[in-house]
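## Example pair
The file below holds two records. Each record gives the amino-acid sequence first, followed by its structure token line.
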Amino acid sequence: MYRILLVDDEILVRDAIKENIDWKSMDCQLVGDCENGKQAADFVKSHPVDIVLTDILMPYMDGMELSHFLHDNYPEIVIVIFSGFGEFEYAKKAIQYNVSEYMLKPVTAMELREVIGKMKEKVDLQRKEKKKIESLTKTSQDYHKNALVIRSKAIESLVSCTRDVQESLEELSGMGINLEAASYRVALFDMDLFSDIHQIDMEKRQESALMAFVLFNVADEIVTDRNAGIAYQEGNNRVCILFMGNRSREFSREIQEICQEIQKKVKEVIGIEASAGIGGWVRNPGDTIQSHNQAEKAIELRYLLGGNLLIDTETLNPERSISLQQPLSDMVDGIKKGNEAEMNQALSVMKSEIKKARVDKSQACVCLQMILRHAGSCWEALSSENEDLFHKREILMGRVTEQKTFKEAFKMAEDYVHEVFERCSSLNSSSGQKQAVLAMEYIRQHYNEPELGLNDICSYLNIGTSYFSTIFKEATGGTFLEFLSKTRMEKAKELLEQTALKNYEIAEKVGFSDPHYFGISFKKMTGKTPTEYAREKRSL
């Protein structure tokens, strides 16, 4: 039976709903009808209610305030809101109060029966979840009264080396547990839903300990049947297995099969995926902490690879260094040339390389920050109007480190790269503007070559000198030689300010084969000789 409360300040509406619905045939009971939210709030304090049907506009306490009250005090009650046409968008704001359905007035009996049917299903689901939690709570309470807790704590102390190894072995021996074996390995199970890769509310956190008990029961049953080791709980949420036996290819394969069987069974029983990491072999019980730490590190790969993992550290390829220099360069080229395919290919390569290198979260975030910097520099090089993109990049530099998974963080960086691409493409919409931008970039890359000339640029762009001179002046306001000279002088200023190089050395580095001509050109542009400029800047 489903208990329904009707709330509406119009008595004719309440009477019409009461009389036109066959409540009994729907296995429902209309337990009350109230004319405002205040009456309804008082009613639910003393009467059990499953579903509330409420209008929005009412005196004393309206439907939104009632929904707020029910959300905070009776979250199990399912709420349906009636609203007039002008109130409909307002009603949608009630989503924050877990309102399940919105119905536009006038409501027909058929529409109401259909909605009530849906709400009954939601009530059933909530009742089922509540029953499951109550069952798990009782089982968990029983569990914490028996010796399994003591056993888990003793094995955890042994593996984590928080007690003397011999004391732990003697305690376990007193329980009839003999840990003598040729070799040992630790496997660690962690439920993905309750891990750091997901945002979970307080109710879920409380549920996690109960689900971990189910995971423990499954693992204990399977490992015991296989006579392969012993299961124990680690803290409230994790389950570990201490495998014991001969170090052989056959037993290693059996360990993987056992872990897969546990993952499959847990998924069937409680519908939750668990990731598992298997540490390497050790010969002594006192060294099992090494295997445990390897298993824990393997679990951390969830950040890169997602959940439902089974990672055997014995079969992993050795970690390798990662270099993103080439794909970063390709990404920048793709952005500047307007080649989206080249840019996307570079992003795909970097994503793959980061995953293959199995870097930890901090290293992965450094790589993502490099992608953001390089993308942002493309826009800065092409336009002085970069405040919004620069500000967004600075925000993203921090936000990528806050994401729970690499997938989410990479998507943020990828979206920023695409935004930069769109901006640059818009800026380069005309072919002349685009060629002028490419020319400026070419000059910035080759300014240190003494023989760099107009013909080199035109050959690179595959256009004539006259056409190039026209589009370049339109884009920059100056000639090729003026831009080249300005670029060289700016680089010379940097070297004079930041290094102790001789003037002839600086001349050579910025593309002047004749130091004397460099000095004349520098004074013409700055009003000072290179020596005077350096002395002035270095004395500041």
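Second record, same layout:
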Amino acid sequence: MLSWMTAAIVGFIAVAFTSTLISYVALGLTCLLSALLHVALRSRLSASWLAFSLAVGYASCFGHWRVSQLLPESLNTSDFVATVEVVSVPAPRQGFTSYYQFDANLIALACDDDLPAKKCRLPSSYSGSGLVQLNWYADSPPQFGDVFTASLRLRQAYGYQSPGAFDYGRWMFASGYSGRGYVRKPEMSVYLDSKPARSFNNVRQGIVAKIGRHLERYRHGNIMKALLFADRSDIGREQWQVFARTGTSHLMAISGMHIGIVLAWGLLVGRVFGALVPRANTLVIGAIFGLCFALGYAALAGFSVPTQRALIMAMAALIAFCLRRNISVWQAYITAMLLVLIVDPLAPHRAGFTLSFAAVGVLLFAFQGRRRSKQLGSHLVLGIFRSQWAVLLGLIPLLMMWGYGINPVSFPVNLLAIPLLTLLILPLLFCGLLFMGLAPSLADRSWRIADYLLDILLNGLTLAAGSFPQVFMPISIFSFVFMSISILVLLLPRGTPAKWLAMVPLICLFLMPAPRPSVGSAWVTALDVGQGLSVLVQTATKTLIYDVGPDFSSGFNTADAVVIPALRRFGIDKVDVLVISHADRDHAGAAPALLKGIDVAELRVGESLVAVNKGALVCARPHRWTWDGVDFEFLNSNGDRSLAGNNASCVLRISLAGTSLLLTGDIEKSIEGELIASGQTLSADVLIAPHHGSKTSSSIEFLRAVSPSHTVFSAGRNNRYGHPAESVTQRYTQLGTRCWSTAYHGSIQFRLDEFGAALEKIWGGGRYYWQIDGYSPESGEEICSKLHSGH
């Protein structure tokens, strides 16, 4: 039984991470041949192969269906006339202006008649339906359940393709979204129907809205809403940072732990109730009560994906509990995982899926075969301590792989926070719900006590978050496997001979320095920061960052989202020189956040930065220095003149053993001409294209002087500026330069050494099957003419 289920799980996971989906014809033939083979052989191997084939077929068909819902690449940022149904309560957001955000189902979609037909033509492969995330830039947003027709501007969701960065596009696809956009001219929207017939979601949203308004009177009402209804929209950025630094973010997500605790309450209540009924099977009654409690809690949370996963695991656990003599815990575990994958074939792309099943698997492995249940039962505190220690130790490799890091305080914090939350706070919150309609005064008292306990909890977490910094470790596939094996050995039962020796490789992995280039060479990584620029340069012992990308009025910035995660992934905790080419927001906006999060020894700027307090040196005058056999030089283009804006950009040339890189910021043609006239050496193997490939830069004379083998355009996908311009990419094509774009290829790393400049790694470009854009890094066909945006 375990063999064929395991084979099916492998099939689901293989399709989830494949870069190309198999055609329907090939899937049908494979499944048919596998079925015939199993009928003929009737062996365990043929059954496993059949299960694998069916899983691959099912997951691939699901993938084809999801891809058909994606907005075609050619229609990104196009305008449509659509009929949509609002399926979530509009939540207020703050960006450049206040707006509302909500989810909506596409009912009908057509191109806007005001646009030429050639600019907007829906292909037959596009289903025209799916879930979209919409912004409403006006007052009086639609309500949950409203159906209206409006003009929408839609696009696919893309994330930063950078080492360690959160991939928003991947999360959107795995969460069921087909695109995102906004309602154009909201005041012109035509409502076709008020709220639909009474439904579960309608009733739930009404309850959530009513109780949510009541909870606003409490200091930590936002946390109460998150724990009761999985509504985390009101939790601020600073609170999330505290949760992340203390390893307690899982407490705010209604998932396996919360459902398991409520299920345990139901089991206890059911068995007590069953004991009062003559000849009743207390085991079955307890299981029924536990399932009802878990279903009720999941309903309050809107049956979100994490709660669905937790419910399936809970049902499998209940079956194993009721039939404990006929089914092993591992069979229940594998069954739960298979059922989750059947319900959601894209679940492996969620950190919650990986971490929750890994945590349960670690517990089963750590406590399997132990016969001292009575002793463990009499020492509850010791049991909790051991289980928390096993989970913390077992999840270290996955936490490092997902980029979460670990904190030494997370173990004692969770040891105290989990019992406080599960044994006191959650029961008080549910008591408040029960008493709200019967005895409002008792409800208020329960919630006030819960609010007081939450205040103690959050103050303790805030104190703990500042005690120790998070530990991040650059991890490869090899170190991940090696670390996992060492930890599993440590979790073997007491008495296993010499298992403590597994600590030696584990300590070595933590103390092992991150890979660095050798002396006389450098690694250059153009980071994907959207419409902006950030380049990381590493030598054997030093680190330089050239620009940091943009920030936004909502508080989001690419230093926290991209640059700092990349530094952590590369094992860098200090920046020796930070160069901010000029003060434009797409280059310097995230500088304050970087200076706050990372130790920077020296700052050099092209023009003064108002938002930065650190003392800085200007880069207008020529300046040279050498690190580990690599030469750095600021080129001078303006003599004693003081420039502002794009033309004030620092121009930095990095060279070693006949190989070089040129960083130009946003300089325009006039400065390019002055650089040529100055007689300074401009030739470079790798060029970061001036001004993202704008028409105002990259003159043909400048390109001939530089004569790059590789050119990188750092720009946002489908950006409104049209970067890089088609006329510019044609100039690079004439020179035979190989071009790369962070918009399509993600972050791009080059190795510079005595043998020249070589492409080292790419973090984007068709990694998953839904990223069908024709820019495969392995194709070797990247030419500049393919990279123009089409605007």
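Notes on the second record: Residues 583 and 608 are 7 Å apart (CA to CA). The two ends are 56 Å apart (CA to CA).
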